[in-house]
Design a protein that fits this description.
The chain has two helices and two strands. It is of the alpha+beta class. The protein has a domain of about 35 residues.
Length: about 70
C-alpha cells in the first residue's frame, strides 16, 4: 500500500512504483470519480491508445439484444 500527501496547492504525487507499474507518463490525463468517501483515479486514454485492444476477440458466442428475454 502506498500513501501520498495533499500539498498546499491541492496536488498529489503518484508514487514512482505505481507510475512504473501502470506506465503513466508526463501529461497523462485522469478521470476522477467520487464515490462516497473514496476518489477513483482512472487514466484517460485517447482512441488511438486503445485502437486494436479487442483485436483477436472471439465473437462466436456474441449475444445481441434479440437474444435477451
Amino acid at each position: 500500500m502506498y500513501a501520498a500527501t495533499l500539498s498546499s496547492k491541492f496536488q498529489i504525487c503518484i508514487p514512482k512504483e505505481i507510475r512504473d507499474q501502470m506506465n503513466i507518463k508526463v501529461g497523462q490525463k485522469f478521470i476522477l470519480i467520487p464515490e462516497g468517501d473514496t476518489i477513483h483515479l482512472v487514466p484517460q486514454y485517447s482512441i488511438e491508445d486503445v485502437k486494436g485492444i479487442l483485436q483477436g476477440s472471439n465473437t462466436t458466442h456474441y449475444r445481441d439484444r434479440k437474444d435477451r428475454e
